[in-house]
Each structure stands twice: as structure tokens, then as C-alpha cells.
Amino acid sequence: MLSERAPVLPFYSPYNFLRDIPADQQAEWFGPGRFARFPASPHEQVFTFQQQGQQVQLLYTALPWDSEYFGVPTFKLLTALFDLVAPMADRVAALQAWQQELANRGGFYCFGEIPVEDTALLQTLTASGWRLVETRLQFYHSQISEFNQPRYAVRAARPDEATHIGQIAAAARNPYDRFHADPWFGEARADAFLARYASAAVQGYCDTVLIPNESGLPVDSFLAISDLTADATKLGVGLSRVVLTAAGPQNRGWHQRLVSETVHRARERDARYVLMTTQATNRAVFRTCEKLGFQLGGSTHVLVCHQ
């Protein structure tokens, strides 16, 4: 089944559009090679379904932090393995059997981020009742050494500012992110989760959180960065990812400035790429990307199921 799915599995690498990184290296760590070693950690699991000679395997992982926060067992579907000639009915039956197994444990929430290239799995999920909640675009900057945008006064947020950063995240509500677009969360719970996530970013979940540092300017924006250390080591290149960002009304224009400073920071750290993901609806971020020299790399769909 790995060989049947081989044409699309490389697109599961979050770096598949970075052409300077050898495809076989990416495939080993994040594509077919990873799924061939699955499960490789205690939280990773495989559900196998067989019917009328057809076998379907669902590869997924439990998310303990999310499960504890929401009070519901939470899982992420990573991909599925099946013969491409398998009838759609068999694939749907596999999804429904797996969902029933999870439901028998007392309810669940599951989501998957599927590359747009994997039409077979996307069609299987929608036929099984999964709901689309977000479409994402992946942007990247690869000309870091030549980046010459103006500098802006920024600093790293301090741990004692974590609560305030969380409040900024909650107030800058985006109806199109997967939490606010999914009725399962509800507006209040989605706001609270983003506030907790942003606070955790300041407290060490991310490598740094940049905020404005101009005299007399209130802090009403932030940008959290992960240097993706483990992945960078595997790939042999320096990376930085914009994990979460928000800009309130008192800091208009600061999203672009914080992203610009993120690229400057990456150059100072000899990183080769800066990555940033946004919703396909976020035209303000598109403009920032165009002004700062980012390129579009790929797209994914986020689908959910729960009981």
C-alpha cells in the first residue's frame, strides 16, 4: 500500500516545496520513509480495516496536551494507506469503523491536515462525513541573505508578559482559522485556546516571541517563532517558522514589521528558509508576503470529525 500511495506521500512533507532540499531526504524523514516506520512513538497508532480482500490502514497520533485542555480525547489523522483500486465504499467503511472505535472510548475529536494533492483521501474523508474547516497556504522566503528591508525596534517578550500576549491573541479573532471556523469549539473556547497557546509560546513552547519595542507604543501585537530545531538537524538547513501572530488596532502595520524582523533574525542565525502558513482567506497576509519577497509553496485542507 505504501507503493500505491507513493505518488502523493512526498507532499506530506511540510517542506516539499523547498526544492534545494533533496526529495529523497525529505521522503525519508517526512514522507514514505516516515510512514514505513510508523508507529515510531507511543502516541502514534495504526487502525487496520479489512473487508472483502481490501485493506485500509489509518495512521494517526494522540494529542495529550489538546486532550487534557479540551477534556476530550483528541487525535490527528496523519494519512491513510490503501490500494487505489479499492472501492470508495470500502474506504468509507474503514473510516466509519475507526470513528466508531474512538467513539466507544467515550467520544473524541479528530482533525487532519491533508495536502491538496491527495485527492483520493480528501474525497474519502468528505464521503465519510468529515467537515472542511480551513484551507491553508504555505509561504516561504528563500532569499534571506539578500533581504534588505528597513529595521524596526523589536524585542523578545518576557515570561511575565505571557498573559498579555494571550489577551492579544484572543482579541485578534480570525473567523477563518480552524478553531473559530469549527462550531465544535465555539467562539469563547476558541478565543481561550488561542490565548493559552500564545501564552505558552512566551513561556517556552516557541523559541522566541517578538513584540514592538518603540518608546510610547503600547504592545498590541506579537509574532511567535519556532526554529524547528529537530527538523533542521535532519535536513541540514537552518529553518524558522512563524507559528502564531496577531496585531491589534493599537499596532496597525506591525504584522509586516514583525515578519520583516523575523527574516532579519533568520539571516543573523544563518537560516536558509523562513516559513509562514496562513488561511487562503487572509488577504492582508498575502500583501505582506508580496512586499517582503515570500513565495507560495503549497496548500493543505484541514478537515475534522467528532462524536
Outline of this structure?
The protein is an alpha+beta fold. It is 37% helix and 28% strand.
Task: Give an overview in words.
It is a single chain. The protein folds into 2 domains: 2-129, Aminopeptidase; 141-299, Gcn5-related N-acetyltransferase (GNAT) (Aminopeptidase). The protein is globular and about 70 Å long. α7 runs antiparallel to α9 (187-205) and α11 (254-268) packs across α12. The chain contains 12 helices and 11 strands. An 11-stranded mixed beta sheet has the order 1-2-3-4-11-5-10-9-8-7-6, sandwiched between helices. It has helices at residues 2-5, 23-30, 32-36, 64-70, 88-104, 119-127, 162-171, 178-181, 187-205, 229-235, 254-268, 283-292, and strands at residues 44-51, 54-62, 74-82, 109-115, 131-141, 154-156, 208-212, 221-226, 239-247, 273-279, 295-306. The model has no long low-confidence stretch (mean pLDDT 96). β7 and β8 form a beta hairpin. With 307 residues, the protein is α+β, with helices and mostly antiparallel strands.
